[in-house]
Amino acid sequence: MDVIARAWSKAVRTALPGPWRFGLVVREVVGALLLAGLAAPIEVLSGTGLALPTAVGSGLLFLVRRGLPATALVLTAVASGFGGGTLPLLVCVGWSAGARIRRVGVLAGSFAAGWALMTLFGVLKDAGQVPAKLIVGFSLGGYLLLAVLPALWGRYRAQRRALTDALRERNEQLVREHAMIAHQARLRERHRIAQDMHDSLGHQLALISVHTGALEVDRTLTDRQREAVGVLRLAAVAAMRELREVVGVLHDESTALPPGPGPGPAAVGGVGAGAGAGAGGVGTGGVDGIEGLVESSRAAGTPVSLLRDGERRPLAASAGHAAYRVVQEALTNAHKHAPGAPITVALRYEPDALVVEVVNPAAPEPVGVRAGGAAPAVVSGGQGLTGLRERARLVGGMVHAGPTAGAGFRLAAVLPYRGADGAAAQGVDAGSAAGPETGAAYPEADAWPGGVSGAAAAPPKRRSPAIGCAVGGVAVLAAVLGLLVWGVAGFVRAAEESTVKRSVYDSTELGTPEVEVRKQLPRGSDFFLRNLEGTGPTPPEGADCVRYLSDDNGGTAWGEDAVVRFCFKDGVLVEKQHYRVKQ
């Protein structure tokens, strides 16, 4: 019993899928009652005697058309072959089948099976009364108009609704992706700002520390002045430590991002020219700004030499900015780890790349330590060389850093004249593509894959469902029009083949051989001549009579037909009659 109950429950859920909201229940019940009310009087007028079963069946099929559209269509087509009471229902189930059957093969098969069964049962019902060819033609035309045409419209509406929903979901997804991309862009910009803070402010604080260290051991200063200078040096060291911590936090948050599109090579370096100018005092943030960095270090009391080798060649803005940052980071590290040691900065223009090299030996002695005091711990965040390697990688270069003989240190970078993106160097300053305030290159939404306003965001062009449905509708109307023309032509031809001209009737004489008379008579059509059987005066005994319509309708009243009758016996014409019968 449980198995039967579960099977019944599953069948009900399949035939009557929910959710059954109040509005849907009212609509379905009203529709079922309306179709049942239409089916009953149509069947009564047809005289089939199936008014009650047709009405009940119409209501039930209307209710299950949502869950079982193919089944409802085929059963309605079969019922339409027996009578006309289900023709209004055929429109509804055709619409529902077109809208709900997704697979084209199942949809075409259901409609083909429905028309075949409708035609078959129509032929069986009217066999001997209406020509089969006429039944096939009229059933096809009616089926196309009442079932196929509504199905095309229903399929168009369903596909349009599905396309609209898909576009709405895509738009919502693109909006979410755009928000995520904007969030990632902000975090990446924070990372670039943090890197530039590390490069620029760290360099300046290192210079301040070097300057104050030199003043602190100056014997011309009083103890109070040395104490004030020491406070400044400790403040600079503390500021460097806090800066490293902030940079570390920003860097960790930014590098935690999932892989995504990054800035182009032109945006490498972030802050750009403004940072270079602040760091070096006169620099531009490119190769030209390196000399300003060297002068700043010399002003702090550190011996720095700048060497150039080879013919100078233009660099891409991003590569020039990377060279500037390499020298800036190397000088900062030298000031921190080897204060007072001489520094050599070399720029070598090779045939295919610029080689930037900064070398310093070990510090000769601790600087900036008061008598009996300890040298302050060197502040290092570990981000500088990582940032330099990333800058060089983005422009197609590389960075090498390591100790030298004698406990010194060497930092070298190879930067190609042509950027990683293949663009030739144009000598454009990195800040030219920067924002108005920070100089950073902010990526626009159009530049990101999947951006809302860019060309990549444009959804692929799809054929509108209206095209296929319109073509199908035109084909259906053309087929119905063709069937109508064919039916009218057949009707006219059948009427002509059932009509005898008055001249033929008058020229035919009694006693003429039956063979000669029949040669002059038309073929006839059961559709027009069936109702004429047994009409007219009593024929001669033992005679075989044939009846035709006459084209002589003079004096014929409304609702009457002019009929001619030819009777044959023993192979000759024995009687001919011209009379009128009521239709």
Tell me what the CATH architecture of the domain at 204-449 is: 2-Layer Sandwich
Rounded to the nearest angstrom, the distance between the terminal CA atoms is 62 Å
The beta-strand count equals: 9
Q: In CATH's first tier, which class of the domain at 204-449 applies?
A: Alpha Beta
Structural class: alpha+beta
Rg measurement, Å: 50 Å
- Kindly state the mean pLDDT as a whole number? 77
DSSP helix fraction: 55-70%
- Beta-strand proportion: 5-15%
Assigned CATH superfamily of the domain at 204-449: Histidine kinase-like ATPase, C-terminal domain
As laid out across the biggest beta sheet, the strand order is 1-2-3-5-4
* CATH fold type of the domain at 204-449: Heat Shock Protein 90
Q: Please tell me what the overall shape is.
A: rod-shaped
What does the model show?
The protein is of the alpha+beta class and 583 residues long. Among the domains are: 204-449, Heat Shock Protein 90; 501-582, Beta-lactamase Inhibitory Protein, Chain:B, domain 1 (2-Layer Sandwich), CATH 3.30.1450. It contains 16 helices and 9 strands. It has a 5-stranded mixed beta sheet. Strands 6-7-8-9 form a 4-stranded mixed beta sheet. A hairpin with a 2-residue loop joins strand 8 (560-569) and strand 9. The longest helix has 85 residues, at 132-216. The protein is rod-shaped and about 160 Å long. Residues 256-283, 367-375 and 423-459 have low confidence and may be disordered.
